[in-house]
Write a structure and sequence with these properties.
The complex is a heterodimer of chains A (219) and B (250). By secondary structure, chain A is mainly α. Chain A has one domain: MetI-like (MetI-like fold). Helices cover 79% and strands 0% of the residues of chain A. Chain A is built from nine helices and no strands. In chain A, helix 1 packs across helix 4 and helix 1 runs antiparallel to helix 8. The longest helix of chain A has 42 residues. Chain B is of the alpha/beta class. Chain B is 38% helix and 24% strand. In chain B, the strands form two sheets. A six-stranded mixed β-sheet of chain B has the order 6-7-8-3-9-10, sandwiched between helices. Classes of the chains: A mainly alpha (219), B alpha/beta (250). At the A-B interface, helix 5 and helix 6 of A face helix 2, strand 6, helix 3 and helix 5 of B.
């Protein structure tokens, strides 16, 4: 099958798959972002067990392959009588892994804050949480827009894990497997998905640079 | 406690601190009365900055006691934060919050710590900026200001907390020469208004002008305590004489 045949027959399904990938990406990134911030706060908190927990969390989820994590969630947990729907498993996997990277980016964003500012905040009587909320996290976020943009793209690519389980609706990678098992889409079927991934990544990259230029901190 | 004299604003009793083997504060005892301006001078590495920073516990001490109005400085947590809120601190490198406007730098702590209303905090901040002469810079971020302007804004930020005492840790050491005076003038103004202050500085003329008392430190010890006139014209200790001589020789 050529381009036109594929698009005329599966165009609507590609479109739905694109939306599914976008949805998964948005949910995963939002979840990763929130957990990433919480883990980062734990990692710099004055409470040692929390710091240790945060560091271990990051070490685990930064270093585990997405496919391995998904297989654990889908096929290992049921042995413990824990059964999640497929889409929940995919979402959990695509949140946990990017959240570790999110925390790493925030940690390096924090390193741009001069220690003097922290001393100033302390000397004004701010508590740890006030300092986190008003000084540390805002500056760490504003200094890490570009790595976060990369993380958003990486999160999108990680959502292709959805194709490894029978999740409905299918994502951009899942639709290719579907077409190629029912039809003879061949490489062309992949190319269409690849183009849609690329266009999305391009848009994310553009938006990221715009945001970065707007919020970058003058030093 | 001696009931005949009022409780000192700040009191240090036999404070000791080590950095590894280095004995940076050696049996430091010192008190600052309400409304008094005490200037600490001494060669670099003498422990004067460490002493200043230990008062609001930006440096911990190994033994001894530090009291604010007779109450010991708490070790950590909320109590320590509450105490720090009563002590203003001005740093060598200004340390304004880089991501906020000058105005927000000043209203932050009054709103967060003192729970003031935003509007009230803002009005007071503008008055303070006016007082230190940078009102027209209120909406800029710190990096857009000169060093002298940043330091004056940092002083305003401390004043917004209505501190009982102000600590200055070499407030003009990072400034270009032409900006030093504008900052010193603000501090001198505070002195005139009766603010209790402990100032670490290398500006000898300024020290002589504003100090009620001069403390000379060297090698982690208080070597001499004197009135500014006596200290600068006829210091009692050989080490102070050597130090002042080395300045004049420059």
């Amino acid at each position: 099958m050529g381009f036109t045949d594929l698009l005329s027959k599966y165009g609507a399904q590609y479109f739905q798959a694109l939306l599914t990938t976008w949805r998964l990406t948005a949910i995963s990134f939002a979840g990763a972002f929130i957990i990433g911030i919480l883990i980062t706060v734990a990692r710099v908190s004055p409470i040692r067990p929390l710091r240790i927990f945060g560091d271990i969390y990051v070490q685990i989820f930064r270093n585990i392959p997405g496919a391995a994590l998904l297989i654990l969630l889908v096929y290992a947990l049921p042995y413990l009588q824990i059964v999640f729907p497929y889409d929940v498993c995919v979402t959990v996997a695509t949140i946990l892994i990017p959240s570790a990277f999110c925390s790493e980016h925030l940690m390096s964003g924090m390193n741009t804050i001069s220690p003097g500012q922290i001393e100033a905040a302390r000397s004004l009587g701010l508590t740890f949480l006030q300092m986190i909320r008003r000084i540390i996290i805002p500056q760490a976020l504003r200094s890490s827009v570009l790595p976060m943009t990369n993380l958003l793209v990486a999160t999108m690519l990680t959502t292709s894990l959805a194709s490894q389980v029978p999740m409905r609706p299918r994502d951009l990678t899942g639709i290719v497997s579907y077409i190629n098992t029912h039809d003879t889409g061949g490489v062309t079927a992949f190319v269409i998905s690849a183009v849609l991934y690329c266009l999305t990544a391009f848009a994310i990259g553009k938006a990221g640079s715009l945001v970065d230029r707007k919020v970058r901190i003058l030093r | 406690m001696d009931n005949h004299s009022p409780v000192p604003m700040i009191e240090l009793r036999h404070v000791e601190k080590y950095y590894g083997d280095l004995h940076v504060l050696q049996d430091i005892s010192l008190s600052v009365r309400r409304g008094e301006v005490v200037v600490i001078i001494g060669p670099s590495g003498s422990g004067k900055s460490t002493l200043c920073r230990s008062i609001n516990r930006l440096e911990t001490i190994d033994s001894g006691e530090i009291l604010l109005e007779g109450n010991p400085i708490p070790q950590e947590g909320k109590k320590l934060a509450e105490l720090r809120a009563q002590i203003g601190m001005v740093f060598q490198s200004f340390n304004l919050f880089a991501h906020m406007s000058v105005l927000d730098n000043i209203t932050l702590a009054p709103v967060e710590v003192l729970k003031k209303g935003r509007k009230e905090a803002r009005e007071e901040a503008l008055q303070l900026l006016e007082r230190v002469g940078v009102r027209d810079q209120a909406d800029k971020v710190p990096a857009q200001l000169s060093g002298g302007q940043q330091q004056r804004a940092a002083i305003a930020r401390s004043l917004a907390m209505h501190p009982k005492v102000m600590l200055f840790d070499e407030p003009t050491s990072a400034l270009d020469p032409e900006m030093i005076q504008e900052v010193l003038n603000v501090i001198a103004e505070l002195a005139k208004e009766g603010m209790t202050m402990l100032i670490v500085t290398h500006e000898m003329n300024f020290a002589r002008r504003v100090a009620d008392r001069v403390i000379f430190m060297d090698g982690g010890q208080i070597v001499e305590e004197n009135t500014p006139d006596c200290f600068f014209s006829d210091p009692a200790s050989q080490r102070a004489r050597d130090f002042l001589h080395s300045l004049h020789a420059e």
